[in-house]
Each structure stands twice: as structure tokens, then as C-alpha cells.
Design goal:
Helices cover 58% and strands 5% of the residues. With 621 residues, the protein is mostly helical. It folds into two domains: 399 residues, no CATH class; 127 residues, D-Maltodextrin-Binding Protein, domain 2, CATH 3.40.190. Helix 2 packs across helix 4 and helix 5 packs antiparallel against helix 6. The longest helix has 27 residues.
Length: 621
């Protein structure tokens, strides 16, 4: 891309500058690659997130053992497009490869390490070229300390991938480059956007809005080679899609993931599904404080670059417009269409990669007078770390609040700071007192902006009163408050147990060998294990261990070959076997899956009334 103005801090070549020793470049590269690991320990980042819905583990089964789902449920799920989770290949293929290479839990963390690198490496290189190395470090810290991104990375829901792909793509498209390097950055961005598109519907929305903004900026700022770049982008997108289809066939067992995705879109667009998931009433929004963060960043960005648009450097202009465009598209889908783009935190979280990139540019512009100072230029990055560590040390119990008046105050502070700092930055006085006041003001500004946005992000939402037009299935409150300094030990234990379930159940003996689950409802620890076999469709009712008329109807309709009994206590299983007596139950396996202080008691029962006689066991195993 061409820039309207040149900053002395911008370099156009991707190759190392001759004056920079190779050992320094190697050390810098190593530090960048290790930055997620170092930040993880320094900021005590929570390694996994709590499961508040079964949806993340519905994706986990496709990572650990996709054949289980495709063999057991492909026909049964087809009418309701319930195999849509298995079609999100942009995320599942990569996660499955890491699972095959490292195992379930190590593969989980290896995948997140890759996502972290996809997020921070392009962002670092962008900010390094625009403002210098300290600004690049600042950006890495802003991204890796964001509670929303940390929480997204903490589960197997595809927002973990989309937030990274989107941030990396925007940084690549904004990269100031010339010659052969420019098409390479565009190609990389297109590849990431393609992966985002086939990871989740929110990724497709981000891809479309980002592409539109990029096209507009190129038409206004850099039309040279635009047609050539567009042809190349289409070719890269097509090649990436075909390659992903073959990869999906190899590691997941499904080549065509596009048709299931389109069927899912059609099914979820039905009136019953819309009423289930989307609120036609907007009055829930003022209760959710973290939704104030993206518009606050957009406004702060606009204030920091409040000048004639022709004088705004193209990279900064594109990032700001991309952030505003993505937010505007999500707002339209939520409030003027019928997609739960903002009220479902698994969807809205995908915005935060670009939001954090835009915030980094705001902080970099705020600290511009410090970048030429040998020591002071590292202060903004240190202050970002200080704010995060201060929050962890104090461990404040942020009270629940909404937009008004508390949320509005915390959102107004960063905006006011940007106005003040911008006025100060215009002062060209060289008096020592003025310089000292300016430096102090910048430091206070960085703390004020990051601190207020952190409080907005982690604040719990107050109870939303019952009102007409709310979605029937409400979104649980996200656990953003413990993303920094929170323990993930119990979450890791339950993840290990959940990923052991497919091996315990064993491979199905024939196509269509369905399995239903039966367990005590209302037990929070079971949210993840029951999601492994699609709790929303493959579970009997809440009467465990006694069958209700509805349960008997479901069994007769589904004709399952097996029933998986689960509980966190070793009680009720004998009664459950007795209740299943009319279906000729045979106990195939019984065990207790243990990890640390987490334990799951499981029984696998074959129903001879429905299982094919050829698979009846001679004895229990």
C-alpha cells in the first residue's frame, strides 16, 4: 500500500537494515517468538477458560475423534443441520493436526501458541515499521493481556481462531511495503481471512467487512496494481479453500464442508431459531459493560487522528476504518437484522483482535514524543504490564455495572485523555518543565486509557430484567474477570476427562450406531463432558435415574444402540439400568475417569433392542 504521508519511523523494506547486526535481529526474532510464553508466566494468564455452555466441547469431539460424530450422527443430524460444528474446518483442521501430533491437552496449548503467534507477529512487525521496536512490544503486550482474547483462546469454540486470524489479516493488509513484499503480505492476509471465513460465521462477517474497507482505502489511496492484486487475492482464496477441503478430508473425514455450512445458515435463519438465540429488543445491551470498549476505542482513534483525512498515514487509516467497519457490521447484524452478533460473547469476542490493534495505535500516537528518547520510549510498554499486574495484585472485585452512569464514566475517561494528550502533543515548546509535564501526562494517559478499558472489560453485568423480545436462550456472563491471574487447574482436569470419553466409548461398530447420554441435569461440572456428544440433541431428560414418558419417546424415536451414563457421584447407576430394562440393557464398561480432584463416573450400556445382533458382546468388557 502507498502512504499519503511518511513518518521518519516507517521503513519500507522487509529485509534487515544493513546497520543492524544479524545477532540483534536473531535475538529480536527469538524474543518475538517466545513472547506468548514469557507473557503467559509474567502476567499469570489463565491457561483455560471455564465452560459456561456445552458448545465448546461440541467442537472438541471433532478435534479428538471426528469419526465418532460422522459415523454415529450424520444421518440423524442432517434435518436440523446439527453437523455444522464439523464443517468449521478453518479451525478444526489445525486443532486436529496438533491433537494428532501432541495429544489432547498438549495439542490444545500448541494450537493456542500458534494462534498467539498469528496474532502478535504481524502486529509487531506493523507497529515496528510505523513507530519502532518499543511500539511493537507495546502492541504485543496489549494483545496478549486482553481478557477477551485470553478467554477466547481458552476453549475449543472457534472464536479462538477467528480473533487471531482477523487480527493477523488486518495487520498484514496495513503493512507498509513495496515491491515483491506487498503481494506477499496481501496473500498472507487473504489466506488468514479464508481460514476465518471457514472457522465460524462471525469470521465470514469480519472477512467481508475487512475486504470492503481495504478495497475502499486502495481505491482512494493506492490504485496502482489494484486489479492485479484483486486477481491474486481471488486466486489465493480459491487455492486456500481447495487446500482446506483436502486437508479436511484427510484429518476430519469430510471433504465438502461448504454445503453443510450453507444448510446450517438456512436452518438457523428460521423464525424458531432466531427467537431462540437473537433478541429483538435492544434493551439488554446497556447492561453489558464490555460492549462499550470497541466504540470507545473507535472514538479515541478518531480523536487521535482528528485532521484532514488526506494527512492520515494509510496504515493507520486502514486499521481505524477496519475496526470501525467490523464494529458497524456487527452492530447492524445485531440491532437491525437478526443475528446475535453482539449479545453472544462467543461471537462478539472475534472483534477484539482488531480492537486491540487499533488501541495499540492510539497508545503509540499518544506516546509519540517518547519514541525518540532512549529510555522513556519503553515506558508505555512497561505501563501496560504495570496495569495488568496491578489489577492482579489488588485482585479487585469489580462491582457489576452497565452503561449508565458508571460505564459511561469509564468510557469517557479514555476519550477525554485522548483529547488532552492530542492538545499537548501539538505544543512544540522545548522548555524542560513543559517536556516533563508532557511525559508525565503521557504516562498518566496510558495508565488511564488501559485501566479504564480493563475495568469495562472485566466488570460483571448486572441481572437483566425479564422483558419482551429477549432471546429464549440467554448468553451466560463471560468469565473475563479472572483471565489475568486466574487459575485454570480444574478446567484442565475436566478437559482431560472430557477428551478421554471418546476412547472409553469406543469406535462405533457400524454407520448410524447412535449413542444417547443420561445424567443428572443442573450439574455444572458436567457441562463439558456432555457436550462431547452434543448435549442439546443426544441427551435424555432431567429425571435421571428414572425414565419419563418423554425419555421413552426419545429412545423409541432415536433407537440408540448405546446409552452413556454419567455423573460426578457413583450413585443412581443401578436404578438407571433397571429403568432401561425393557430395552434389554447390557453393561459394556464401567469406570471412573479421574484427573486431580475431578472425577467422572461413567457407564456404557448397550441396548440389545436397537443394536444390531452382530455386535452384541459375548461378555461385558
Amino acid at each position: 500500500m502507498l502512504t499519503a504521508t511518511r513518518s521518519p519511523l516507517v521503513t519500507d523494506d522487509l529485509a534487515p537494515q544493513p546497520s543492524t547486526p544479524l545477532w540483534k535481529l536473531a535475538l529480536e526474532s527469538l524474543a518475538l517468538v517466545l513472547s506468548p510464553l514469557v507473557t503467559f508466566f509474567v502476567l499469570r494468564i489463565r491457561a483455560m477458560s471455564p465452560i459456561d455452555l456445552p458448545d465448546p466441547s461440541i467442537h472438541t469431539i471433532y478435534i479428538v475423534d471426528p469419526s465418532q460424530m460422522f459415523t454415529r450422527y450424520a444421518a440423524a443430524f442432517a434435518p436440523a443441520a446439527r453437523m455444522r460444528e464439523g464443517a468449521q474446518a478453518g479451525y478444526l483442521v489445525i486443532a486436529r493436526l496438533f491433537d494428532l501430533g501432541f495429544g489432547a491437552v498438549p495439542g490444545f496449548f500448541a494450537t493456542r501458541y500458534l494462534f498467539a503467534l498469528i496474532t502478535v507477529v504481524p502486529a509487531y512487525l506493523l507497529m515496528r515499521r510505523l513507530y519502532g521496536i518499543p511500539a511493537g512490544v507495546l502492541t504485543v503486550l496489549v494483545l496478549l493481556s486482553c481478557p477477551v482474547i485470553i478467554t477466547a483462546w481458552g476453549t475449543d469454540y472457534p472464536d479462538s481462531a477467528v480473533v487471531s486470524y482477523a487480527a493477523g489479516a488486518v495487520a498484514c493488509l496495513a503493512m507498509p511495503a513495496r515491491g515483491r513484499s506487498r503481494p506477499a503480505w496481501i496473500a498472507l492476509a487473504v489466506g488468514l481471512l479464508t481460514l476465518a471465513t471457514f472457522s465460524h460465521g462471525a469470521g465470514a462477517v469480519l472477512c467481508a467487512s475487512t475486504a470492503v474497507v481495504y478495497l475502499v482505502v486502495r481505491l482512494l489511496r493506492g490504485r496502482a496494481h489494484l486489479a492485479k492484486d484483486a486477481v491474486m487475492a481471488v486466486a489465493v482464496a480459491a487455492t486456500s479453500t481447495v487446500g482446506l477441503m483436502f486437508a479436511s478430508r484427510f484429518v476430519l473425514g469430510q471433504f465438502n464442508f461448504i454445503s453443510p455450512t450453507l444448510k446450517a445458515v438456512s436452518y438457523l435463519s428460521g423464525p424458531l431459531q432466531i427467537a431462540q438465540w437473537h433478541s429483538s429488543n435492544w434493551r439488554w445491551a446497556p447492561y453489558v459493560s464490555y460492549l462499550l470498549v470497541p466504540p470507545t476505542v473507535v472514538v479515541a482513534f478518531a480523536l487521535m487522528f482528528a485532521r484532514r483525512w488526506r494527512n492520515i498515514p494509510t496504515p493507520q487509516l486502514f486499521v481505524g476504518l477496519a475496526c470501525a467497519g467490523q464494529l458497524g457490521t456487527f452492530a447492524y447484524l445485531q440491532f437491525f437484522y437478526r443475528v446475535q452478533a453482539l449479545e453472544m460473547h462467543y461471537f462478539s469476542s472475534t472483534l477484539w483482535g482488531t480492537v486491540c490493534l487499533a488501541l495499540s495505535i492510539v497508545l503509540a500516537e499518544m506516546a509519540r514524543p517518547l519514541w525518540s528518547r532512549t529510555l522513556l520510549r519503553w515506558l508505555p510498554a512497561a505501563l501496560v504490564v504495570g496495569v495488568a499486574l496491578g489489577y492482579e495484585a489488588v485482585n479487585p472485585q469489580v462491582p457489576a455495572f452497565g452503561w449508565w452512569p458508571t460505564g459511561a464514566i469509564f468510557a469517557a475517561v479514555p476519550v477525554a485523555i485522548c483529547v488532552i494528550v492530542r492538545i499537548w502533543n501539538r505544543d512544540t515548546s522545548v522548555k524542560a518543565l513543559r517536556r516533563a509535564a508532557l511525559g508525565l501526562g503521557i504516562m498518566l494517559g496510558v495508565v488511564g486509557v488501559t485501566g479504564c478499558l480493563l475495568v469495562l472489560t472485566v466488570a460483571p453485568r448486572p441481572p437483566i430484567p425479564k422483558m419482551k423480545g429477549l432471546a429464549k436462550a440467554g448468553d451466560p456472563d463471560p468469565a473475563y474477570d479472572l483471565a489475568l491471574g486466574g487459575s485454570a487447574r480444574s478446567f484442565i482436569y475436566w478437559y482431560r476427562i472430557s477428551t478421554d470419553l471418546p476412547a472409553f466409548v469406543g469406535d462405533p461398530a457400524y454407520q448410524g450406531e447412535q449413542l444417547l447420554m443420561w445424567f443428572p441435569w443442573g450439574v455444572r461440572q458436567l457441562l463439558e463432558p456432555v457436550g462431547m456428544f452434543h448435549e442439546g440433541y443426544d441427551a435424555l431428560g432431567p429425571g435421571f435415574p428414572y425414565l419419563s414418558a418423554s425419555d421413552r419417546h426419545d429412545i423409541a424415536r432415536r433407537r440408540p444402540a448405546e446409552i452413556l451414563l454419567m455423573g460426578i457421584k457413583d450413585i443412581g447407576f443401578e436404578s438407571a439400568l433397571g429403568a432401561l430394562g425393557r430395552y434389554e440393557p447390557v453393561l459394556l464398561a464401567s469406570t471412573a475417569l479421574r484427573q486431580g480432584n475431578a472425577v467422572l463416573y461413567v457407564r456404557l450400556v448397550l441396548l440389545r433392542s436397537f443394536a444390531r445382533p452382530s455386535v452384541w458382546p459375548a461378555m461385558t468388557r
